[in-house]
Amino acid sequence: MDTKWNNGTNESNANGTTQNNTEIKQHYGFMTATTMIIGIVIGSGIFFKSDDILAYTGGNVWLGVLVFCIGAWGIIFGSLSITELSIRTSNNGGVVGYFEAFISKKIACGFGWFQTFVYFPTLIVVLAWVSGIYTCSLFGFDNTLEMQSLLGFLYLLFFYGINLISVKIGGYFQNATTLIKLIPLLVIAIAGFFWGQPHPVLEEGVELVTTQNVGFAWLAALVPIAYSFDGWIIATNITNEVKNPKKNMTLALICGPIVVLGVYLTFYLGLTKILGVNYILSTKDQAINKVGELLLGTYGTKIILIFIVISVLGVVNGLVLGGIRMPQALASKNMMPAAKKVSPIHERLQVSVPSLQISFATSLIWFVIHYVTQKFNLLRGGDISEIAIVFSYACYIILYIKVMKMKKAGEIKGIFRGWICPVFAIAGAAIIFVGGFIRNPFYVGIFIAFCALVFALGYKCFKKEK
After folding, report:
1. In the prediction, which pLDDT does 175 show?
2. 2 assigned to some structural domain
3. Does pLDDT of 437 surpass 90?
4. What is the pLDDT of residues 235-244, one digit of tens each?
């Protein structure tokens, strides 16, 4: 998953409402739209979720391929359905804007609160922690949860700091890491096609994990898949800037996910061919280290890890870029208390300082929660960000149903756009939602209920403000 933030051309007036200062120009073509989708979706998740997918499928490589295809299926039809909404509104705020325009402002406020206080901070925290994991491997630090968390916390401070000091620095770092993340994926994918050497032997002290029949429990693999593909809905934010959006954006939303699927599958198959299923199951996130050594020699592990660390940090920075702006975006729509204090943007820093402070404080709270869940393995190998993504898919179903209602009312023409796309999108979202519960019904149920509570608080807050 990767994340970019489009701050748009809207700004708030004294009453907290938004005004559009410039006319939106359609300056993107098919190729630009497609590459933008690919750049947003391909992120860091594939590096540390491939072993999870193998684990949940019991080491069945081809069942893992099926899971990847289901994930691509969900984003293709989901994005095509959301596009029907995006081409009919100029509201800012992405998905929040779609809820605001087509469902209700109260529901939009609820979803905005969920994104602000659960979705963005949990993703930021988990990816900062993952950065700590790979940093430990890179520099030979003790790979304990405490050391990983300490490094993750330092990364958190760093990225919030640079995005406070200068929005340009954060933007430059984001651009620099966009292409870097593709290098290790393609190297491993290509090498896998020509690999003919035997699989590596496990180091002494590493417990061997073998394949097994998991039955329908493989559906739980759809959760890490959803994580790896997450970010696709952000691509619909540029619909109004694409030339002939009904044609070009539709094609881009089909071609883009197919390219992403191709990159993911070739990497996944290349990884399993080089290392073998048992080695990946046994070494988990550390499996990628061995690939670097086998492909590039003594310093190969370090080289691969450098690319991965930069890639993951780029995603952390992108999420911070988006996260620090969410409270301000809600305040500009009068969707949170003290909106007049949060909505103004600092003239020199070009960011709302109270908005950044809210985002940072929320991330710190989730950092503690994440540490506890990992320390006691409450989510059975999963993490808090996956649950936030699962809840997001449940919320998207509301928008898919709206598309079908618009088709029934005659606003959308064509059976494919009005019925087939939203029905398949609902099916994909439902499968991912069910997969989340299969993994750990008790704790996942608790976290989903918490997400719903935050959503409800946002809904009530807007009602109270109005």
Report:
1. 64
2. no
3. no
4. 676 676 778 8
Q: Where are the alpha helices (DSSP H) in 213-299?
A: 222-229, 245-275, 277-283, 287-296
Question: At 456, is the secondary structure helix, strand, or coil?
Answer: helix
pLDDT tens digits for range 171-187: 676 666 667 878 889 99
Q: What is d(CA 238, CA 383) in angstroms, rounded to the nearest whole number? A: 30
| Residue 133 covered by a domain | yes
Which CATH number do you get for residue 256? 1.20.1740.10
- Measured between alpha carbons, how far is 303 from 321 in angstroms, rounded to an integer? 27
Q: Is 1 among the domain residues?
A: no
Whether residue 56 is contained in a domain is answered as yes
| Domains held by the chain: number | 1
Q: What is the pTM of this model?
A: 0.84
Identify the burial level of 14 via C-beta atoms within 10 angstroms of its C-beta, where 0-12 means exposed, 13-18 middle and 19 or more buried. Answer: exposed
Residue type, 247: K
pLDDT at residue 333 is higher than 50: yes
Helix axes 287-296, 245-275, angle to 10 degrees: 80
**AA letter at 57:** T
Full residue range of the structural domain in which residue 455 is found: 26-465
